[in-house]
Write a structure and sequence with these properties.
heterodimer, A: alpha/beta, seven-stranded mixed β-sheet, 10 helices, globular, B: alpha/beta, Rossmann fold, 2 domains, 14 helices, 15 strands
Chain lengths: ~250, ~350
Amino acid sequence: MDIKDIIKPENKVYGKTPLLTDAVMHYCPGCTHGVVHKIIAEVIEEMGIQDKTIGISPVGCAVLAYNYLDIDWEQAAHGRAPALATATKRLNPDKYVFTYQGDGDLASIGAGEVMHACNRGENIVIIFINNAIYGMTGGQMAPTTLLGQVTATTPYGRNAELNGYPLKITELLAQLDGTCYVTRQSAQTPAAVRKTKKAIRKAFENSMMNKGTSFVEVVGTCNSGWKLSPVKANKWMEENMFPFYPLGDMKDR
Amino acid sequence: MAEKILMKGNEAVAHGAIRCGADGYFGYPITPQSEVMETLMEEKPWETTGMVVLQAESETASINMVYGGACTGKKVMTSSSSLGISLMAEGLSYLAGAELPCVVVNVMRGGPGLGTIQPGQADYFQAVKGGGHGDYKMIVLAPASAQDMYDFVDTAFELAFKYRTPAMILSDGVIGQMMEKVELRPIKPRRTNEQIIEQCGEWALTGKTADRKRNLITSLALDPNVMSAHNIELQKKYKTIMENEQQYTTYKTEDAEYLIVAYGSMSRIAESVVDTARENGIKLGVLRPITLFPYPEKALESLIPQLKKILVVEMSAGQMVEDVKLVVNGRVPVEFYGKCGGLIPSPDDVYEAFEKILK
């Protein structure tokens, strides 16, 4: 049988959401960003809110997220996305406003902005991709880099005395009165993807209920930064990241 | 008769913002401009016009909130003083790069560093020549009275939206703290969402509907050819602004043989010095730039043939004087008098400096 005989409408089992553009993604093979982009696109499509959604992209690998989701986008300075989101949402309360940020952007240079946006209980969605490394700049130590983890700026492994400790910023944000939903998920298996999608949908729904900030961390991989194949990276994540960054809801009110 | 109320320059900014239909103010307390946000909070415009007012956690957050609001076509503004503006420099560069309209008020104090809470004019370079990174300009307006503080909020928004670029009101601690009568202009209602789409729909983030492509606000272009083309467009825009938007006032310049060039509070001092000089039979006049970018080159140029000497007076070590010298280009001697670090030149100080250049 030729492949052309298989490509028929009745054999179609899955279609890409039109919310994802046809632009070729710049992400490395195995990277978690592409999967999470698809999840967000599907949530926006299923909720029917394309015309009411404004995304805010960070500085880092996901700076070009705006090329892949067919919605209105603003591109923030490094770490400042929650400040942009604050004003965008307050001035446009009928819009679903979300930020998409990595660990260097959100937990290091942007720690102040995310802390205060969450503490004010801004009715926004914050999606936090934690792969424990700076990907875009070539694999340097991030605030979430694990102890012992080798990066370009911790060539002998992260050492607490020299570099301080990995930052559990999601746990910190869960303590704040302004957050209504704080969860940590992953996206390395179909089951994990389903859970993350459910979490992101809930976060979007919360943002119209005047309940406060919804924060979804997705623990992900950086194959290039970690210097591991996609399969090995997933295994390394499960064995090393999950024990330190346990998955599950921290807060849901 | 129009309503006139006694108020501080800073308070006038707040009233001017509410009454010109501003959509949002985001700020952080800093002396000598804190009355701007205090007045807004007291006035509670969110209950009347629907204007959003928010105290941010830092100047960095304030300017990025301005960015987030400006992305959606709203009339948004912030205010700060000197060192706070330094913290906003990154954001100002982003706003200029992304071609977003907004208004930023700088009520200058003396620097450098933490400096002093007393007035200064030492942020001229920062406002007019850049401050943030990259080749960009802001429209810069210099108020000289509480009335100007009120009126320039509207003017700055109009110019910012006309050219899709940040506009700065470069004031100083004297103008911010001084109390004067201010005439309240007729209220301009805030624009409706439909009006915003009509005015800014080509670029503003109003939600991607089926009838248009998605809008994107970014200052990033990884391809140097694209970035270069963007820079060329920006420079064209600045040139148009230079050609069309120079504003200034003159005082007794018709027959002047000598000229003081001064802006903001120093132009007020200069005018009283002119009166003293005229009593002594000396033909002195004042050119007061209202726009610092674009600099009123045409007005200065037209005065040069009649002048013997020019004195530039600033509350700085000499910053605007460089722009005066650029225009004059050696045709007339240009002298400078200034005080900095929070000291305010008195009319006597300036007159004495003027007498020295007469010799």
